[in-house]
Amino acid sequence: MPKYYLFVTTHHSTFCSFDKNTHYRAVTKLIYHKQNFFKNTYCIFKAVDFQLVKDKKPNFTSRSGSQYFYTEDGVYRISTHWGRAATCKWRLQTDERNIKNGKKVGFAKWSSFYKDNEVEKLYFIKKSEFSHKYEYFHKDEPSYTSKYVLRTSGETRKVLRQLKAITTETKWAKYIPHDDLEDLRKYLINGLITSNKTLPELKRLYNE
Length: 208
Known about the structure:
The protein is built from 3 helices and 14 strands. It is of the alpha+beta class. The strands form 3 sheets. Strands 4, 5, 6, 7, 8, 9, 10, 11 and 12 form a 9-stranded mixed beta sheet that branches. A 3-stranded antiparallel beta sheet has the order 1-2-3, with no helix packed on it. The N and C termini lie far apart (43 Å). Mean pLDDT is 88; it is low at 1-10 and 17-26.
C-alpha cells in the first residue's frame, strides 16, 4: 500500500504518494488566504447569523459594497450578490432566516477555496443535498467521485441549462416516445452527469 506525505510551502501544498518502487505522484493544491482568495477561485460559502459580524469592522469593502472580515480559519462576506463575484464563482448556501435588508452573510474556510479557470475540466454536476437542485461542484471537493464527468466552465453551464429544461419543462418530451416521463427524465439526467454523451445522443438512445 502506498504511503502519503504532505509537503507544505507558503503558497502550495503537495501530496505525494510513494509506492514500493519509490515512485511518487504529486498533486499540488494552491493554499488560499486573505491575500489571494479573491483571484479566480470557486467556493461555496455557508450562510451564518448576522450577529457573528454585527460589531466587527470589515477588513475590506469592495466597490460594490461587499464587506469582508478575515479570521485565521477563513473569511466572512456580507453581500447582496452571490454567484459571480468579479473573477470568482462564489455560491451561498442559505435560507430566508439569514437575509437582512437584501444582504446575506456567509462564511468559508480558506480550505474551501479552489482554483477556477475557463480552460481546465474542473467541474462536475450533481444534485445538491442542500437545494435539491442540480448544481456544479469542483473536482477537488470531497464529494467528487469518478462516476461524475468533469467539464470546463462553459461546458458545465450548457449542461446546467439542459438539466433545467429537463426538470422544469415537458414540451421537449413529446418528441421522444416514452411511457413514463419521470423514467425518461432520470435517464437523460444520469446520462448528462455521468457520461460524455450529448443530449441529442441520449434522446436517440433512450428507446434502443
